From TrEMBL:
The keyword Ligase does not apply. This is Lysophospholipase, alpha-beta hydrolase superfamily. One of its GO terms (molecular function) is hydrolase activity. Residues 352-378 are annotated as: Disordered. Pfam families: Hydrolase_4 (PF12146). Keywords: Hydrolase. It comes from the Bacteria. Residues 102-337 form the Serine aminopeptidase S33 domain.
Length: 378
């Protein structure tokens, strides 16, 4: 596995004809992110890039190109019908799925890398039917937010989360507040939580992005570090690599046609998400509860060895942690073919975290099933 798979796993997932799973019409498709040129795929390119970037690193003094906050901490955050404005004036597009007029519970959704708030549409609609209001933003640098595709830094994403929590607490002072983080969104929550406890009532981690550098091969780390210091502006696509984030082909096709889903990823953004995943992996021992942790055995985006390392670091006897390992689950769990089962589990846990989940797939993070799944994962 080379640098092109680092790019692929961190990217977004468009759909092209290839050799993936069969669509309903019988045509074969492959869900693959548009973040690496086809000509760059292959081990020869990987090894060559690793050697080249090592040399370039020695001759380069450049730093990763992170967008700085334009006007830090000069205003009070505010929230409107379709946006939330952060303390530096940056505007985050906002979507709301309204439940009860005065909801007892609200959920804030944070999407994955290169995705945007629409990722929570299926879950938001179902939770609204149960009286729960769901908010989701386009995080900084994604979707319809300013400077799409640019990385603004792990600390800034965590600060945005704290701003959002404060805004929702003020808008719904009597409601219980839960954060749902999918993939990168989960890494943002874990990073913020490790800095200081979050004033929330519960946490939902959906296939959290914990693919840290120490779980990557050395040549991937070397290639990424060299590339970000020499070609931070370079945009990569993922053609030629067959990894899929979901078995829901129609959903992936819709993402591929959606202009708000980023299709080409800058090298400095890849470096940034890797930095965020480092922090998320390191935070496992400080996980706040109550928490619902979800992962799919078919996940091809967050490698099993990385997730299992995160799992092994979790507190062993915390009764506030519910772990669900879906045998047929992929990376985009609430949007997979079996997404209805996942969404039902989330709704049930929000109603009462102490009752068994409808899917019956919850298990101990250190029990026999998790141990059998992780096996000898490094």
């Amino acid at each position: 596995m080379g640098f092109e798979q680092t790019v692929h796993r961190c990217g977004v997932y468009a759909l092209r004809k290839g050799h993936g799973g069969p669509s309903p019409g019988g045509t074969l498709y492959s869900a693959r992110p548009n973040i690496l040129p086809k000509a760059m795929a292959g081990s020869l390119w990987t090894n060559g890039l690793a050697a080249l970037t090592f040399v370039l690193m020695l001759t380069s003094c450049a730093s990763p190109n992170i967008v700085e906050s334009p006007d830090t901490h000069t205003r009070s955050p505010d929230i409107g019908a379709d946006h939330a404005r952060m303390d530096d004036g940056y505007r985050l597009p906002l979507r709301v799925w309204t439940g009860a007029e005065r909801p007892r519970k609200i959920v804030l959704g944070l999407h994955g890398f290169n995705d945007y708030a629409n990722a929570f549409a299926p879950l938001g609609r179902e939770l609204a039917d149960a009286g729960i209001t769901t908010y989701a933003v386009d995080q900084r640098g994604f979707g319809a937010a300013a400077l799409p595709g640019r990385w603004h830094g792990s600390n800034r994403l965590a600060a945005d989360l704290r701003n959002l929590i404060d805004l929702l607490r003020a808008r719904h002072p009597d409601a219980r507040l839960y954060i749902a983080g999918e993939s990168m969104g989960g890494a943002v929550v874990l990073t913020a939580m490790a800095q200081a406890p979050l004033p929330i009532d519960g946490l939902i981690l959906i296939a959290p992005a914990v693919w840290s550098r120490d779980t990557m091969p050395w040549y991937q780390r070397l290639a990424l570090e060299g590339a970000v210091r020499t070609l931070p502006w370079l945009k990569l696509t993922g053609e030629g690599i067959r990894l899929s984030p979901s078995d829901h082909i129609e959903m992936l096709q819709a993402m591929g046609a959606d202009p708000l889903v980023i299709k080409a990823t800058r090298v400095d953004a890849l470096w940034g998400i890797t930095d965020l995943m480092d922090r998320a992996q390191a935070s496992a021992g400080r996980l706040q509860t109550p928490a619902l942790l979800l992962y799919g055995e078919q996940d091809e985006i967050i490698p099993k060895n990385a997730f299992c390392r995160f799992l092994a670091k979790l507190p062993g006897t915390d009764p506030g942690l519910t772990f669900v390992l879906y045998e047929h689950g992929w990376h985009m769990l609430p949007r997979d073919r079996q997404g209805a089962r996942v969404r039902a589990d989330i709704a049930a846990w929000l109603e009462d975290p102490d009752t068994p989940l409808p899917s019956g797939e919850e298990t101990s993070p250190h029990g026999p099933r998790a141990s059998a799944f992780c096996g000898n994962a490094p």
